[in-house]
Amino acid sequence: MERHFSLRKAAKEIGVDRHTLKLWLTEIAIVLPPVRRGSKVLIRESDLERVMRKRTARSDWSLLRKAG
């Protein structure tokens, strides 16, 4: 069974602010459901991994451009 993280916990796991994580999720077309105040949004571990793969690839590319 796949693990799920709250938005806050997922952001903490990868070392970013939760608003940044929401933006990154939107960039890869993961739509977060609207929730009532006080409710938690759960992020699937696989979606979190997709975000990290994309962000890591982007970061590596920017390092290569700076070196050249």
Structural notes for this entry:
The chain is mainly alpha-helical. The protein has a single domain (4-67), classed as Multidrug-efflux Transporter Regulator, Chain: A, Domain 2 (Orthogonal Bundle). Helix content is 60%, strand content 9%. It contains 3 helices and 2 strands. It has helices at residues 7-14, 18-27, 45-67; strands spanning 4-6, 42-44. Strands 1-2 form a two-stranded antiparallel ribbon. It is globular.
Helices and strands in order, then pairings?
Elements: E1 4-6, H1 7-14, H2 18-27, E2 42-44, H3 45-67
Antiparallel strand pairs: 1-2
Give me the count of strands.
2
The CATH topology turns out to be Multidrug-efflux Transporter Regulator, Chain: A, Domain 2
CATH top level label = Mainly Alpha
> Looking across the biggest beta sheet, what order are the strands in?
1-2
Percentage of residues assigned to helices: 55-70%
What is the alpha-carbon Rg in Å? 14 Å
Work out the strand percent: 5-15%
Order of helices and strands: EHHEH
The biggest sheet amounts to:
2 strands, antiparallel
**CATH-level-2 architecture:** Orthogonal Bundle
Number of distinct helices: 3
**Could you tell me how far the N terminus lies from the C terminus, measured between alpha carbons in angstroms?**
44 Å
How would you state the average pLDDT, rounded? Answer: 82
Total tally of structural domains: 1
> Structural class, please?
mainly alpha
Task: Identify the overall geometry.
Answer: globular
Which ranges are low-confidence, i.e. pLDDT below 50, for 5 or more consecutive residues?
none
